[in-house]
Amino acid sequence: MNAQEDSASAGTAADSGQGSPTATARPAPKSRRGIRTRAALVTAARQVFEADGFVDARISDITRTAGVASGSFYTYFDSKEEIFTEVVAQVRDEMLHPHVRARGGSDDPRDWIAAANREYLRSYRRNARLMAALEQVSRVDQQFAALRAERASAFIDRNAALIRDLQERGLVATQLDARVTALALSSMVSRMASLVFVEGEKIGFETLLDTLNWIWFNALRLPGAQ
Questions:
Q1: pLDDT value for 22
Q2: 105-146: per-residue pLDDT in tens?
């Protein structure tokens, strides 16, 4: 995805979406109507970003999709960047799956890892177009690059905590640096997800999942891994 001039720059100032992903968010609306309108804008923004990518998305497209007046956008958001940040935050929460282990009801760490990888790949596949948009904008905007790195760090931290827990149980060698190991394995999973669901690499879902799980199990030398 190459850096290119935002096509909105040829439109009105309202469509240019200039701003910062770290801009101060406006206060949350208190009225029911305001809450509904803001939620409609976020939902519409997600649709537009998925369809057009970040660069080509226009604020006027978002308001039209949401069915609200163009000026209403600025009641809730300062810029295209700000609403994109909100959309990405929602997807991050959706993809993290912090309670997979508790829901699984298994004491086998291989089951925890397999369940977490399955949920991650499912979420990535479901949100592939938005992940592509985030990759697109992070290549041309350092603040969004930092946002992408922050999102990745949440997955790495979760996996590092799992590895440390397994080390304390005597199931994983303590010589391994938990965070470095989590970084390596998490990067493998996320990169493969991008290759398959964004770039179109022809690998079946179950083949992808089984392969990633096998590498995880054997990298950690978990009991029962083959």
A1: 44
A2: 678 899 989 998 998 899 899 989 888 888 888 887 787 788
3-class SS letters over the chain: CCCCCCHHHHCCHHHHCCCCCCCCCCCCCCCHHHHHHHHHHHHHHHHHHHHHHHHHCCHHHHHHHHCCCHHHHHHHCCCHHHHHHHHHHHHHHHHHCCCHHHHHCCCCHHHHHHHHHHHHHHHHHHCHHHHHHHHHHHCCCHHHHHHHHHHHHHHHHHHHHHHHHHHHCCCCCCCCCHHHHHHHHHHHHHHHHHHHHCCCCCCCHHHHHHHHHHHHHHHHCCCCCC
Residue pair 48/61 in contact (Cβ under 8 Å)? The answer is: yes
List the structure tokens of 33: 């109507």
| Burial class of residue 184, CB neighbours in 10 A (0-12, 13-18, 19+) | middle
Q: Which position has the token pair 């226009």?
A: 58
Please state, in angstroms and as integers, the Cα–Cα distance from residue 8 to each residue in 53, 73, 136, 177, 212, following that order: 12, 16, 16, 46, 40
pTM of this structure: 0.73
Residues (pLDDT < 50) of the chain are 1-24
Question: Can you tell me the distance from the alpha carbon of 5 to that of 225, in angstroms, rounded to the nearest whole number?
Answer: 49
